[in-house]
Task: inverse folding
């Protein structure tokens, strides 16, 4: 049973931040100067209003004094026949000795003026006179066209006559019109207090925002937050503290999720099943080594990308299932599953497809023949070892018994028997050596030395050593190694892998063939190799067992060419030592092909 966990997290950007520069003014300063500028504007408007109000109050106060004089002048001149003496007496009674008194008739002619007694111009065009004609009273501060001096005029309309009093704009008038500046000092004091309070408030906000900004930079760079952040005891501090707390919780959840994801990926990579995930558009999301291996065993053509797996003929039922289910309007919210069994190249594979709600899907390939195969191998192992050891020992014993039993044996016969004994002992030595290598791989694989091995150089050495056998059987080689692959592994085992594959092809593939070694794919961790020949191949019934120890396709022929029956088993164990997998299949055009992976660093 396969347990599959799918984690699909989609993050959509919903917040856009306007482009800024590094020399921007901090928010706390902008807040401070914005509020303080508004307060200064309000203060200025208030001072302007209050200044105008005080000015009008001072003018009105002085105007009332002069209006009172106007009414006194009217009463005194109305009761006296001699205006000059009456007004001269009046001026002696008041403190403003420089008071200018003017009486204007309804036509605008000056009837009396104590400063300029000669005939004057019509005064109806004077501003204070105009105002008095309309409102019964009026005042003005202006320069006199008659004397050339600046006066404060106050005019009153009494019995259609204008009675006007004027004081020169001297020290007295200035003092009377002066403004009380206490309100200015008060506003300066309030502005200072407001400045201090606002600066403390915005400094507190700025300090909190600065901590949040620093915290955001740490989060943005995905660094570990080591500083303990302490915020102010207010609503903004509470919000900031909540943000930091939520981030820590999110980091814990993220770390946990990352750990679980890593465990899940490791599980998939080292699973005994081929596994691959695809998006709704058929793009590969994740695949492990076994999937690539299994799909190449199933396919008649070489598959380099997991995305090509769905297109091979054997996957037609899965393709039909996906086409039908992805557009099914009655599917609702269901996860659908489809499976099929493929019997190919001596192996039986169970292929399962799971279609998820977002139309992403996964493919898993299980080799369901493996358990029975391993069980059978264990049963036959002891029997095979005993049998393989018995054969050369029996031969040696038989030849030696013949020599001992026949002391008068002809020299040429004796020499023949001795050479046969030597040949069988050599075979026995090779057999014991191969069994020793396999035992070391099974029980003490950590005892092998590791170093950087160039596959190109290694194959060159093997070709030189096998050059005689290759020439005798007219075998050509084609080596395709893009990028000059280098593996950090054990030289002896890597040599055994490729040497045994060469020896197997030379011994059994036939004459006049071509051997092709191709590194057809590379990912961050593994190299993917193909070792193929275009020889006679082997029957499908044997492909599933050629990596078994002592298994022989043609026992008589194998012994004739001197094989131990352990070469391909050593190849498989050497590949396993280098964290890879190996499979074999017959090529459609003829010959045998081995597909195996080797990890770049063991």
Result:
């Amino acid at each position: 049973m396969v347990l599959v966990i799918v984690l699909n997290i989609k993050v959509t950007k919903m917040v856009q931040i306007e482009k800024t520069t590094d020399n921007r003014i901090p928010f706390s300063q902008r807040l401070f100067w914005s509020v303080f500028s508004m307060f200064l504007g309000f203060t200025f408007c208030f001072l302007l209003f209050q200044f105008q109000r005080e000015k009008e109050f001072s003018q009105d106060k002085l105007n009332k004094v002069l209006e009172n004089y106007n009414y006194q002048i009217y009463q005194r001149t109305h009761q006296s026949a001699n205006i000059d003496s009456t007004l001269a007496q009046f001026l002696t009674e008041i403190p403003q000795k420089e008071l200018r008194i003017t009486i204007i008739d309804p036509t605008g002619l000056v009837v009396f003026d104590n400063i300029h007694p000669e005939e004057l111009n019509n005064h109806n065009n004077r501003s204070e006179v105009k105002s008095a004609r309309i409102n019964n009273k009026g005042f003005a501060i202006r320069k006199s066209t008659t004397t050339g001096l600046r006066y404060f005029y106050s005019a009153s309309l009494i019995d259609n006559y204008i009675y006007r009093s004027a004081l020169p704009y001297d020290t007295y008038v200035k003092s009377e019109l002066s403004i009380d500046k206490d309100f200015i000092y008060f506003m300066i004091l309030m502005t200072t207090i407001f400045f201090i309070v606002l600066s403390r408030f915005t400094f507190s906000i700025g300090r909190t925002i600065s901590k949040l900004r620093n915290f955001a930079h740490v989060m943005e760079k995905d660094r570990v937050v080591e500083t303990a952040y302490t915020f102010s005891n207010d609503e903004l501090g509470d919000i900031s503290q909540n943000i930091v707390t939520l981030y820590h919780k999110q980091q814990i959840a993220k770390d946990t999720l990352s750990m679980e994801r890593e465990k899940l990926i490791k599980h998939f990579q080292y699973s005994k099943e081929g596994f691959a995930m695809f998006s709704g558009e058929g793009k590969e999301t994740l695949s492990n080594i076994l999937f690539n291996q299994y799909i190449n065993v199933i396919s008649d053509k070489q598959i380099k990308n997991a995305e090509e797996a769905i297109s091979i003929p054997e996957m037609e039922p899965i393709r039909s299932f996906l086409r039908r289910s992805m557009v099914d309007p009655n599917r609702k919210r269901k996860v659908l599953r489809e499976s099929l069994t493929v019997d190919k190249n001596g192996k039986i594979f169970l292929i399962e497809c799971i279609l998820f709600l977002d139309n992403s899907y996964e493919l898993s390939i299980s080799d369901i023949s493996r358990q029975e195969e391993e069980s059978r191998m264990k049963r036959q192992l002891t029997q095979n070892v005993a049998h393989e050891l018995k054969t050369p020992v029996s031969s040696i014993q038989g030849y030696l018994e013949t020599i001992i039993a026949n002391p008068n044996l002809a020299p040429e016969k004796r020499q023949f028997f001795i050479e046969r004994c030597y040949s069988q002992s050599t075979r026995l030595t090779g057999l014991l050596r191969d069994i020793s290598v396999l035992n070391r791989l099974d029980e003490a694989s950590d005892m092998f030395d590791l170093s950087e091995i160039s596959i190109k150089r290694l194959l060159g050495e093997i070709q030189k050593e096998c050059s005689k056998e290759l020439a005798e059987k007219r075998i050509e080689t084609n080596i395709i190694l893009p990028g000059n692959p280098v593996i950090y592994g054990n030289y002896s085992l890597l040599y055994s892998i490729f040497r045994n594959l060469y020896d197997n092809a030379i011994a059994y593939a036939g004459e006049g063939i071509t051997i092709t070694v191709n590194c057809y794919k590379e990912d961050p961790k593994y190299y993917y190799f193909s070792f193929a020949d275009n020889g006679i191949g082997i029957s499908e019934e044997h492909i599933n067992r050629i990596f078994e120890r002592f298994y022989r396709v043609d026992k008589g022929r194998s012994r004739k060419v001197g094989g131990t029956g352990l070469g391909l088993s050593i190849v498989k164990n050497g590949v396993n030592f280098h964290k890879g997998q190996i499979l074999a299949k017959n090529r459609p055009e003829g010959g045998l092909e081995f597909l195996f992976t080797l990890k770049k660093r063991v």
User: Anything to note?
Assistant: Residues 27-79 form the longest helix (53 residues). The two ends are 30 Å apart (CA to CA). Residues 1-18, 555-562 have pLDDT under 50 and may be disordered. Residues 451-599 form a domain with the Heat Shock Protein 90 fold (CATH 3.30.565.10).
